């Protein structure tokens, strides 16, 4: 879920939006729009509201998205809360994972020192996330022109790994990148780099090469990121594959949730009709994702922006 419009709100307006975000009586779609409003407004007050929701809310989906937004904001004011969430082993793995990824996105030395404590976390999804985040920070440190990692994304997102360098890609075709993507002998970081290179190519062919990654059995974290990237690309050609994975009740719910949100981003009638079948899914994070995905689809199709009035 992304936003493209920014604006300035008064302190009273920020508090009003923050209250909406934290009110579990409100529809999930409205709470998500409140979250992304705060993300775009930025600043300590907005971050404090997001952090409170991240720590206290009952919805793993909403908390996961709160952590994601804090990472995209790249403000060190959120570090302490993100560390608390990452360290909380009773928290849902997808929330802890997103907190770790957010620390990697903020990317300071303080973040690096925190992340190093969790490289061998008992939860595989968290441990893999942390290793990727450490690699990301070290990669940007070793690259004089690394910036904050946002400029390498055509979607203006802070990604957990940069695309492959142009000299590495050179004349390498999509097929070769697709081979790197699914090669379990390669490091996960290199496979993520191939993923974001394919995303930036931004064609139907590269999207289908990415969709093949949804069949990789070795890492639910990897499959979830593939689905997220397909949501960024919004290619209708990937609809059937996303629907196939979403339908797999034995799949990790973190992966299924991202497939649902990707379908919402694609926002075709076909994608929306698929999502309607999951509004009562037995997995809370999946049914909430279907609700949010249909809400996002409505906004995409109506050309309304995400910010609340």
Describe the structure.
- There is one protein chain.
- By secondary structure, this protein is mostly helical.
- Helix content is 64%, strand content 0%.
- Helix 1 runs antiparallel to helix 2 and helix 11 runs antiparallel to helix 12.
- The protein is globular, with a radius of gyration of 18 Å.
- The two termini are 19 Å apart.
- The relative contact order is 0.10.
- The N terminus and C terminus are likely disordered.
How far the N terminus sits from the C terminus, by CA atoms, comes to 19 Å
Give the total of beta strands: 0
Element order: H for helix, E for strand:
HHHHHHHHHHHHHHHHH
Per the CATH scheme, the topology name of the largest domain is Leucine-rich Repeat Variant
Name the structural class: mainly alpha
Give the name of the CATH architecture of the largest domain: Alpha Horseshoe
Q: Could you name the CATH class of the largest domain? A: Mainly Alpha
> What is the mean predicted local confidence, pLDDT?
90
Our Rg estimate from Cα atoms comes to 18 Å
Which helices and strands appear, and what pairs or packs with what?
Blueprint: H1 11-22, H2 28-41, H3 44-56, H4 60-73, H5 79-87, H6 93-106, H7 109-115, H8 124-141, H9 166-169, H10 174-182, H11 188-201, H12 204-211, H13 220-233, H14 239-246, H15 253-266, H16 269-276, H17 284-302
Helix pairs in contact: 1-2, 1-3, 2-3, 2-4, 3-4, 4-6, 5-6, 6-7, 6-8, 10-11, 10-12, 11-12, 11-13, 13-15, 14-15, 15-16, 15-17
């Amino acid at each position: 879920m992304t936003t493209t419009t920014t604006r300035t709100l008064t302190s009273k307006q920020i508090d009003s939006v923050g209250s909406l975000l934290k009110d579990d009586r409100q529809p999930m779609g409205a709470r998500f729009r409140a979250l992304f409003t705060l993300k775009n407004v930025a600043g300590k007050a907005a971050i404090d509201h997001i952090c409170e929701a991240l720590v206290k809310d009952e919805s793993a989906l909403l908390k996961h998205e709160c952590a994601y937004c804090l990472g995209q904001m790249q403000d060190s004011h959120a570090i302490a809360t993100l560390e608390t969430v990452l360290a909380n082993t009773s928290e849902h793995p997808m929330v802890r994972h997103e907190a770790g990824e957010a620390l990697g996105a903020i990317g300071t030395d303080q973040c690096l020192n925190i992340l190093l404590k969790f490289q061998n976390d008992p939860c595989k999804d968290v441990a893999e996330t942390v290793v990727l985040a450490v690699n990301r920070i070290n990669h940007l440190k070793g690259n004089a022109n690394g910036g904050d990692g946002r400029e390498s994304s055509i979607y203006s997102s802070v990604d957990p790994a940069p695309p492959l360098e142009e000299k590495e890609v050179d004349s390498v075709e999509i097929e070769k990148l697709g081979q790197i993507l699914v090669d379990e002998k390669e490091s996960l970081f290199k496979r993520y780099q191939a993923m974001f290179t394919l995303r930036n190519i931004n064609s139907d062919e590269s999207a289908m090469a990415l969709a093949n990654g949804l069949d990789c059995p070795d890492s639910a974290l990897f499959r979830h990121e593939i689905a997220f990237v397909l949501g960024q690309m919004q290619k209708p050609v990937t609809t059937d594959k996303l629907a196939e994975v979403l339908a797999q009740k034995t799949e990790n719910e973190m992966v299924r949730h991202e497939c649902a949100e990707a379908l919402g981003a694609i926002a075709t009638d076909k994608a929306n009709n698929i999502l309607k079948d999951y509004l009562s899914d037995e997995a809370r994070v999946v049914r909430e994702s279907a609700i949010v995905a249909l809400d996002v689809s409505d906004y995409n199709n109506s050309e309304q922006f995400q910010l609340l009035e």
